[in-house]
Amino acid sequence: MSFFKKLKDRLFRSSDKIGEGLDALVGEGDPAAAEVAPSPPEFVAEKQQTPEPKAAPASTPRTAPVVPDMPDAGQRPGLLGRMLGRSDAPRRVLDDAMLESLEELLIQADMGVETAVRVTANIAEGRFGKRISTPELREALAAEVARIMTPVARPMPLYPTKPQVVLVVGVNGSGKTTTIGKLASQFKAAGKSVVIAAGDTFRAAAVEQLQIWGARAGVPVLTAPEGSDPASLAFDALTKARVDGADLLMIDTAGRLQNRQDLMEELAKIVRVIRKVDPTAPHNTLLVLDATTGQNALLQVEIFRKIADVSGLVMTKLDGTAKGGVLVALADKFGLPIHAIGVGEQIDDLAPFDPEDFARALVGSGD
Ligand SMILES: Nc1nc2c(ncn2[C@@H]2O[C@H](COP(=O)(O)OP(=O)(O)OP(=O)(O)O)[C@@H](O)[C@H]2O)c(=O)[nH]1
């Protein structure tokens, strides 16, 4: 199964929400405004009555165009459009009411108010006052989402440094352990030697889970007695990984945000200690976020950026959540690289982040 197919199948809740919402916007809007495009002769007459596009309202600043202008809905569709049956698609004038509903739809899909307003404003640009169909709106939205996501879609960078130290942070249950297992397995398959350090020494279950993932991935997992100092484990793990000539050391960490001060000190100490072995470490600090937490993910980025020098994000549990839009808000607000996304609990359910695929899956486009 292609990853797009998997993503589309599994992002179904966000896609359904946005996809159905777009249909409703055009089809169930003002019945006078939503209408099937007429056949060519009437079309010309109709066009003469079409009012001039209104100026953009103040609530949504409609500035420079960022997506290519769509063909004027009042013009006869081209051959391709007619072949695709576009002339039969219901259309509705893109007016303030419709833009407001679109904004609302995007907010409900967890895109966040600021991002939803910006996306809506950009969609309005060049289209305001024109009659638009659902496929056109879907296409415009996908293009806008892809435009925001493209600059942040970057795989985790690999450096010549051996071992490259990857610190993995995030709140409990966000999917750190699973992500480390999946990444370790992928790096191993790519010919890299990987070592994992089970740095959440306070939770025996977390250590056990990491050992299971390590065994699955065929990667050694270094552990320490329960309750022991994670920084000391990180130091030993880095020393060993160095001696063994490992390419990558992935360090799991605790994620107890309840006591932020403790967590901050713990992470700071890990960094201080591993720098005694390699002053350039850690080379990556991955923040793992759970997509199902929606807007709370934004808060987590803010907190972890203060605690640790976050270099990139991994978003897990995009399968089965209606909150996939939060990824757009994250990209728009922080611009941090999104290295990978998780769409399931299996070892191969982690993929590089592809902005086009994501955008199409999010708005419910077909393959
Ligand atoms: N559906 C789905 N579940 C996931 C995904 N990633 C992780 N999970 C599940 O989320 C739960 C928590 O994942 P963990 O990897 O244990 O999270 P953690 O951050 O290490 O949590 P602690 O061990 O409590 O610190 C587990 O049941 C995972 O199987 C994903 O992409 N999709």
Automatic annotation (TrEMBL):
Keyword GTP-binding in record: yes
Topological type in the membrane: Peripheral membrane protein
AAA+ ATPase domain boundaries: 162-309
Annotated SMART domains: AAA (SM00382), SRP54 (SM00962), SRP54_N (SM00963)
Gene: ftsY
InterPro entries: AAA+_ATPase, P-loop_NTPase, Signal_recog_particl_SRP54_hlx, SR_rcpt_FtsY, SRP/SRP_N, SRP54_GTPase_dom, SRP54_N_sf
Positions of the UniProt region annotated as Disordered: 19-83
Key words, A-Z: Cell membrane, Cytoplasm, GTP-binding, Hydrolase, Membrane, Nucleotide-binding, Receptor
Protein name according to UniProt: Signal recognition particle receptor FtsY
PANTHER family in alphabetical order: SIGNAL RECOGNITION PARTICLE RECEPTOR SUBUNIT ALPHA (PTHR43134:SF1)
GO molecular function: GTP binding; GTPase activity; signal recognition particle binding
Compartments in which it is found: Cell inner membrane; Cell membrane; Cytoplasm
Top-rank taxon: Bacteria
Subunit structure: Part of the signal recognition particle protein translocation system, which is composed of SRP and FtsY. SRP is a ribonucleoprotein composed of Ffh and a 4.5S RNA molecule.
